[in-house]
Write a structure and sequence with these properties.
Elements: H1 2-8, H2 11-19, H3 23-30, H4 41-58, H5 61-71
Amino acid sequence: MADIYAITGDQKFLKLARRFTHKSIVDPLIAHQGHPHRQTCQHADSKNRRSERIAMLTGDKDADSGARFFWDPS
């Protein structure tokens, strides 16, 4: 949905992309709490990539920070 938003610029696709964001994985990353990828790497990775794409398209600093935290090896 985020890619369709990027192509069309239609806000309804961005809204839908945000609805598919898995908050139980993304919200702790935004708050820099824990690293879910250590337990469920593949599942969390796909969720994080979606959030990262939305951040890139919208300039959402919190989502960008959470995505970067996900990849932090420490």
